[in-house]
Design brief:
0% strand, mainly alpha, 172 residues, 5 helices
């Protein structure tokens, strides 16, 4: 199960990092690049560095937070099904997305070299980026987490993707 958990963190971290980097940096910086307040190079550098930062944070959270146990504890009284799957995806989104978004926007914000008065505020970059990333991450988690889990459980043993609507029950 440890290998499965690590690989789940890796696959989900990689998937979320790619999509959230484009989403977060795009939403947070692209309007400023289009308006001429930021150079195009800032967008490109922020996307590349944002991906690495996002992936590192995702892996760190995955290693520190036992998502399987957290979701298992918080959904132990729920019946398997769509409702449980939706709630588990929301839990993962709440744990990962705010921290990753805040760090990625901070990285982009502090890399901006704009003349005084032309640099957008951190909060004006964070709020739209966080909102967009929260929605995108929820959908990605909802779609990819069960797929990756099913693939890993098939490869490394255990139930074929767990019960419908969620991960296998927490070990106890």
């Amino acid at each position: 199960m440890k290998k499965t958990g690590f690989l789940m963190s890796f696959y989900m971290g990689l998937t979320l990092s790619v999509f959230l980097t484009f989403t977060g940096v795009g939403v947070g910086m692209l309007p400023n690049v289009i308006a001429g307040r930021l150079p195009k190079q800032a967008l490109i550098v922020s996307m590349i560095s944002g991906f690495f930062v996002s992936f590192a944070i995702s892996m760190l959270i995955g290693l520190i937070v036992p998502m399987h146990k957290v979701t298992g504890a918080l959904t132990k009284n729920m019946r398997p099904g769509v409702g449980k799957l939706l709630f588990e995806s929301l839990l993962s989104d709440i744990i990962y997305t705010p921290l990753i978004s805040a760090c990625m926007v901070a990285l982009a914000y502090f890399r901006i070299d704009a003349p005084p008065g032309q640099k957008p505020s951190y909060i004006h970059m964070l709020i739209p980026s966080l909102a967009a990333c929260f929605i995108v991450a929820y959908i990605l988690i909802l779609v990819f987490q069960p797929l990756f889990l099913k693939k890993l459980m098939k490869k490394y043993g255990g139930p074929q993707g767990g019960p419908p609507g969620g991960m296998p029950p927490a070990e106890g």
